[in-house]
């Protein structure tokens, strides 16, 4: 086998489709079964559209929401609003991931759903990886791509430093009906120790997703009490909580979200998407980064498989590509996050940015890329 990809999110699925279209034998391992929900803001910058078109992906079939304006509020409700220069679209992971999986399978990718990768080893002498699956099955491949998300037991097996460091952050996501909000708007609303994003997805739904801390949750005992006592202090969030129709009774929740720097190559595994580095949700472009990372990884992997790059050059070139495209974005994202979540600092930041809209556009350009 040429390539095994661990993880069937956006990065894994796009890389699988890209490499299969280049003629390589690809197996993708996904521990869940499509379709399923993920904790995600479900906004994608339009920078990905040329690449998706090259892969033969026509998202118009899913009728995504077209997003053209951005709004930011302070904890007290002070608003800043500007156009989205490049624009973007909203689409649920429930629909998009399953759609990409169908495209990958139609192209000839072997997709193993409800299958967990337990360990990855590299055999130096043979120049091959072995991937051990739950149940004992072993796959061998010349290249392994790790696209398994924010946190996995594989991170422990690969002895990645961030895995042993506790993170205070948790993410919560709902789908809503909220007709009072324009469908071309993506909004970010700050509150004490966190911020929430809301934007339209397909059909008449909205994705409502927020990041906060375990300390906030522990202080109030439950997610509903925390929402009522903390998020609702922002009048825009209070309006959402009081007037939106929540479409499933329990939210999707993920713990231990780490924004610590990561490496994009571990034990000869090329990592992409959140496995390689997680941009703060405040900057709202992790989905586009995962798709772009797939393009970078697929191009370098193809060159290696065709004999154009030895393995050390493959890994060095991918590391260079990844750092060049995403390293500055992540650094800006971590810096911007420090401005928000603290009420006094958030109020000052929004007040200042309202008077300096060019700075907001500059920050957005620094956390988004160009079409590729």
Question: What's the number of helices?
Answer: 11
Proportion of beta-strand residues = 25-35%
Count of individual beta strands: 18
User: Which whole number gives the mean pLDDT?
Assistant: 91
Low-confidence stretches: none
**What structural class do the secondary elements suggest?**
alpha/beta
The biggest beta sheet is recorded as:
9 strands, mixed
Can you walk me through this structure?
Residues 2-320 form the FAD-binding domain. Pfam families: FAD_binding_3. It comes from Hymenobacter glacieicola. The structure is a single chain. The chain is α/β, with parallel strands linked by helices and 372 residues long. It has helices at 10-21, 49-54, 93-107, 153-157, 214-220, 223-229, 235-243, 286-305, 311-337, 343-354, 357-367, and strands spanning 3-6, 26-29, 43-45, 65-73, 79-90, 110-112, 117-123, 128-133, 138-141, 143-146, 169-177, 185-191, 194-200, 206-213, 245-246, 252-257, 265-266, 269-271. It is globular, with a radius of gyration of 20 Å.
Quick recap:
This protein is an alpha/beta fold and 372 residues long. The chain is 35% helix and 27% strand. The protein has helices at residues 10-21, 49-54, 93-107, 153-157, 214-220, 223-229, 235-243, 286-305, 311-337, 343-354, 357-367; strands at 3-6, 26-29, 43-45, 65-73, 79-90, 110-112, 117-123, 128-133, 138-141, 143-146, 169-177, 185-191, 194-200, 206-213, 245-246, 252-257, 265-266, 269-271.
List the SSEs and their pairings.
Blueprint lengths: L2 E4 L3 H12 L4 E4 L13 E3 L3 H6 L10 E9 L5 E12 L2 H15 L2 E3 L4 E7 L4 E6 L4 E4 L1 E4 L6 H5 L11 E9 L7 E7 L2 E7 L5 E8 H7 L2 H7 L5 H9 L1 E2 L5 E6 L7 E2 L2 E3 L14 H20 L5 H27 L5 H12 L2 H11 L5
Parallel strand pairs: 1-2, 1-10, 2-6, 4-12, 10-18
Antiparallel strand pairs: 3-5, 4-5, 7-8, 8-9, 11-14, 11-15, 11-16, 12-13, 13-14, 17-18
Pfam families: FAD_binding_3 (PF01494)
Organism: Hymenobacter glacieicola
Protein name: FAD-dependent oxidoreductase
């Amino acid at each position: 086998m040429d390539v095994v990809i661990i993880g069937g999110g956006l990065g894994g699925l796009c890389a699988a489709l890209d490499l299969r279209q280049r003629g390589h034998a690809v197996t993708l391992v996904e521990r869940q079964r499509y379709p399923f929900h993920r904790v995600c803001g479900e906004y994608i910058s339009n920078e990905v559209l040329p690449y998706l078109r090259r892969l033969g992906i026509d998202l118009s079939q899913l009728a995504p929401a077209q997003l053209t304006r951005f709004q930011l509020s302070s904890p007290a409700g002070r608003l800043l609003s500007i156009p989205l220069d490049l624009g973007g679209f909203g689409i649920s992971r429930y629909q998009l991931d399953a759609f990409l999986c169908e495209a990958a399978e139609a192209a000839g990718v072997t997709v193993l759903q409800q299958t967990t990768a337990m360990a990855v080893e590299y055999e130096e002498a043979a120049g091959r990886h072995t991937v051990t699956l739950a149940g004992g099955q072993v796959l061998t491949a010349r290249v392994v791509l790790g696209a398994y998300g924010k946190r996995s037991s594989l991170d422990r097996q690969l002895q990645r430093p961030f895995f042993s460091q506790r993170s205070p952050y948790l993410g919560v996501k709902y789908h809503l009906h909220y007709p009072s909000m324009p469908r071309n708007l993506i909004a970010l609303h700050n509150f004490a120790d966190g911020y929430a994003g809301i934007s339209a997805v397909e059909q008449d739904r909205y994705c409502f997703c927020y990041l906060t801390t375990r300390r906030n949750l522990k202080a109030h005992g439950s997610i509903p009490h925390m929402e009522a006592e903390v998020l609702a202090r922002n009048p825009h969030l209070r309006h959402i909580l009081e007037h939106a129709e929540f479409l499933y009774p329990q939210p999707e929740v993920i713990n231990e979200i780490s924004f610590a720097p990561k490496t994009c190559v571990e034990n000869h595994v090329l990592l992409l998407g959140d496995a390689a580095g997680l941009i703060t949700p405040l900057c709202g472009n992790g989905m586009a980064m995962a798709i772009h990372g797939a393009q970078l990884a697929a191009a370098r992997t193809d060159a290696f498989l065709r004999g154009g790059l030895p393995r050390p050059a493959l890994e060095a070139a991918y590391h260079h590509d990844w750092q060049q495209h995403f390293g500055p974005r992540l650094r800006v994202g971590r810096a911007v996050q420090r401005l928000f979540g603290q009420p006094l600092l958030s109020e000052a930041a929004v007040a200042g940015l309202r008077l300096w809209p060019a700075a907001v556009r500059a920050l957005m350009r620094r956390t988004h890329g160009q079409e590729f």
